[in-house]
Amino acid sequence: MTAIPPDAVVAAWVRLVRARHRVLGAVEAELKRAGFPPLAWYDALLELRRAGEAGLRPYQLEGAMLLAQYNLSRLVDRLAAAGHVVRAPTPADGRGQVLTITERGCALLAAMWPAYAAAIGRHMGAHLTEAEAATLAALLDRLLAPPAEPG
Amino acid sequence: MTAIPPDAVVAAWVRLVRARHRVLGAVEAELKRAGFPPLAWYDALLELRRAGEAGLRPYQLEGAMLLAQYNLSRLVDRLAAAGHVVRAPTPADGRGQVLTITERGCALLAAMWPAYAAAIGRHMGAHLTEAEAATLAALLDRLLAPPAEPG
DNA sequence: GCCATCCGGATGCAGTTGCATCCACCATGC
DNA sequence: GCATGGTGGATGCAACTGCATCCGGATGGC
């Protein structure tokens, strides 16, 4: 159980961290230069747009984005303060709320996507063929599978 | 220049961020549970051990780890406060300093590695064959290549 | 020698994260 | 109906990050 992993695994691990650091840094920097908010805003708004008028409960959004509860709570604070999101009480559950994206939020998504996509293309796509990207995506997916069961 | 990247690239991008988040989170959590400091400490000490008695200048360490200058400055503060690293003035350059790892720092590296390696194995190795890990490492390496030159 | 500039490194401050805890409300047993 | 425990979400506080700036020493022009 505590066997040392093969070199290739350690190499992949190191590169995973570094590549993500590098590409994310470059992409976020581009977006910031263009005057856009952090990517977390984009992700949250994207989920909310996908949910449509029904909206999402904060805990659902928390599950969809891999984000800690307190962290999401404060992200929603900021999104609401900026007018991208509306918090409404739930009829069904007095403790909870429903989050829905506003027009303004949709507009932000629409404005960000071209810049975001271009940045992804520049910092990721430019380094890979389409086939390589597909292979990479498939391999990374393996890492997202549920953790290996203890035999 | 602002072409939308193909779906496979976007898919790889999303999975890159999520996979790193997931695996890093799991690995760091394991190390923390075992009472160890954050991985940044390990990385820094590893570089310093590699440099041996000659040590490293902070700006060299900054380059080796992808870490902002002010950030490194404070990481070194913490490492020094914990006795893992020694700051000494440079004879060659009055502004600078040389960082060297202490016995205690080496001991920490030695203590952390088994736990770290086991965590990598569990959260990364368990999901991939060795060949897949090698492919993944190679693909991620492409992302670390210098940015594409503007034609 | 003297000045302007640059570079290595530190630091004050604001914004963000992690952790622990708290509050309110739901659900269950009785 | 009321105590008990669980769940959704917020928040005080300490740690950490990013940014801008600052300081002191090096370097180059003259």
UniProtKB/TrEMBL annotation, chains A, B:
Pfam families: MarR_2. Coiled coil: none annotated. Keywords: DNA-binding, Transcription, Transcription regulation. The keyword Cytoplasm does not apply. Residues 1-145 form the HTH marR-type domain. It comes from the Bacteria. Signal peptide: none annotated. InterPro entries: HTH_MarR-typ, MarR/SlyA-like, Tscrpt_reg_MarR-type_CS, WH-like_DNA-bd_sf, WH_DNA-bd_sf. This is MarR family transcriptional regulator.
